[in-house]
Amino acid sequence: VSLRVHPDRAEPADKERSTRHFQILGKVYAVLSDEEQRTLYDQQGIVDEESTVLTQDCNWEEYWRLLFKKITVKNIKDFEKKYKHSTEELEDVKSAYEDFKGDMDKIMESVLCVDYTDEPRIRQIIQHAIDSGELPSYKSFVNESKRKINARKRKVCLTDDKFY
């Protein structure tokens, strides 16, 4: 629920309404997570507006964990396994290609779960879509120099502190 009403995810025209809904959701959580307030609400159906529960700092980590489970390395690896070679990845690659007008530096930075070892596969996806007429042919992709490709690889090697 909080994701649907979170102000950061709302359209500009709906931001004010989303902010109000998100604040209400926070108050609901504050009441339901406080034993005294919840008992009062369960017994009488009212909320004590004067209560400090609604204004005091609450345990935001606990609140966050109610909304979202903790993410582990295993979760990330599992996501990566499902995402790579999926329809979702295919669509993301195509969107990135169009958004960045074929700039492979930006494409490789924006597509989830890819590194320089995935570049040949990503290039193949894009080239296939160009050949089939699904994507336009951008000069920055078609005529990318070996120098730029190698610079991208060197940049990754240096930032990863690894030697490939």
Automatic annotation (TrEMBL):
Q: Which PROSITE patterns match?
A: DNAJ_1 (PS00636), DNAJ_2 (PS50076)
GO MF terms here are:
heat shock protein binding
| Cross-referenced Pfam families | DnaJ (PF00226), HTH_DNAJC9 (PF23302)
The residue range of the signal peptide is none
Start and end residues of each J domain: 1-45
The entry's cellular-component GO terms read: cytoplasm; nucleus
Q: Which domain of life is it from?
A: Eukaryota
- PANTHER family linked: DNAJ HOMOLOG SUBFAMILY C MEMBER 9 (PTHR44144:SF1)
The protein depicted here goes by the name J domain-containing protein
